[in-house]
Amino acid sequence: MNEIEVAQISCGSEYTGIQGEIESAAEQVGAKIIFPDIDLEEVGAAEAKFGIKVTSPDLKLMLARAISVVEGHTTADAVFIGTCFRCAEGALVRNEIRRYIHDKSGLPVISYSYTERTTADTLLTRMEALTTIAKRRSLLAREKQTGITAGIDSGSTTTKAVIMKDNEILGFGWVSSTDVLKSAEEAYSTALKESGIERDEIQAIGVTGYGRFILGKEFNADLVQEEITVNSKGAVYLADRQKGAATVIDVGGMDNKAISVQDGIPGIFTMGGICAGASGRFLEMTAKRLGVDITELGKLALAGKASNISMNSYCIVFGIQSLVNSLSKGARHEDVAAAACYSVAEQVFEQQLQEVEVREPVIMVGGTALIEGLPQAMRELLQVEVIVPPYAQLIGAVGSALLASGFIEE
Amino acid sequence: MANIFIYPSNSLILYDLVERFGHAPLAVMQEIKKRVTTVGIDSPPLNITPEDPKIGLKYAAVEVPAGVRGRMALLDPLLEAAEAAILVEDAPIGFGCMGCNRTSELVGFLIRAKHIPILELAYPTSDGMAEDFVYRISKFLDELGAGKEVKNE
After folding, report:
1. Which chain A residues contact residue B67 at CB under 8 A?
2. Which pTM value belongs to this model?
């Protein structure tokens, strides 16, 4: 496939001063930003056609451009939708256009609300996922792992590696992330040792996570891939929900992902990295404050009641302060653990799940999914089935190993 | 000759009318020209950089969208230089627009707060209204030129 064309439908990017950053992120993943050409009459007619009234002319232009993409007047492989952060009217339009394009065109679509501080690096993972979905649909359709492959996920908090053979996980390594290369090597060596496989028997290797680029070079990886697509594949594979709709939620150490998936391919997704209060780090700090290991926090939470604790803030600092205050008033540790889990789930629900279509089943992945109180809190909030698949913490590594096996046959 | 702030700030019709009646129009095109011809700035298409929304903090706090503040940075020299203003409400996009209604609201407020002569007009929707539109602009600008005290409409 030639260069991927990403149609940009946005308001304010040129006045925010970050248009160059958007184009740079696209360029880094072999994509080109295009703008749907629109006649003035089409802008005037767009509101009635779309069915929403807006006051800002650039939002009317966004509607017209979205219609042009859906009706095929503009040819594009994927769509990037953007409006200014903190613009309520922009957020409304952004969400509706994203839904409209997803439902009516089937094109991969991402949306983002930017500030003047948005950089190409911030957008890179999203843009990479967008272009991968557009150009590697056949690879993403892979449902079985074949041959002997390895997957390494260099996360912000932990590094994971798996060895897979003929659709089975033979061994894995899971270590804290320190030096990117050293941690990866340690996890990989552990996985090899556990699986009884020699390094030279590995037929293909896939890498993902924050350190994927440096690992890709070091391990001469066949697949260097961002976490959105890899985690989606890993999640539906491990949950055995490869066909149909699903929603993948990954509460990570540094950022969270919420991905609406269809047949294992991401449709709408969001990545949140603004607030640490909604991350695994918050749960780590809570565990530390309660004097328990992070692996014990989940069970503690299941025995508690979140509503017994008054949480005044989602913030990692002030939220912890609320928990500390509760403890000083004699609150039960179980209730505090439950409140921390509920706080993270609620913040993910309020800030991220509003942006994707939550379709059952909800598959929770990542190391935090093993903190039982978190999926339980999500179940309570969403009132839907929440699955935590086996090896949920290895999702990125498993997804990488699965997709990497596509390179053996190539 | 007075510096006349026009809004929509990129309206070629308003620009032309102001110029024809012997005044200096203050339009956003002048500011964009300065940016795109300044050597060393590389932030296409308008050469607005991420520093501009920070300049816009002069007019709007950080919780105001960056796109509004970036626009305000562009309009800042025009607002500063304005000695009189012509504002046209509810104009169609083809007449000129800044793309963002929040910016329009803020600019309208700021220009009124300057207490300079202002002519506020509704966009004409008939030939008769269009004639009146041009007549009122010419009268406003003539009176400014003659040094008469102009009553805001």
Report:
1. 11-13, 15-16, 83-84, 87
2. 0.83
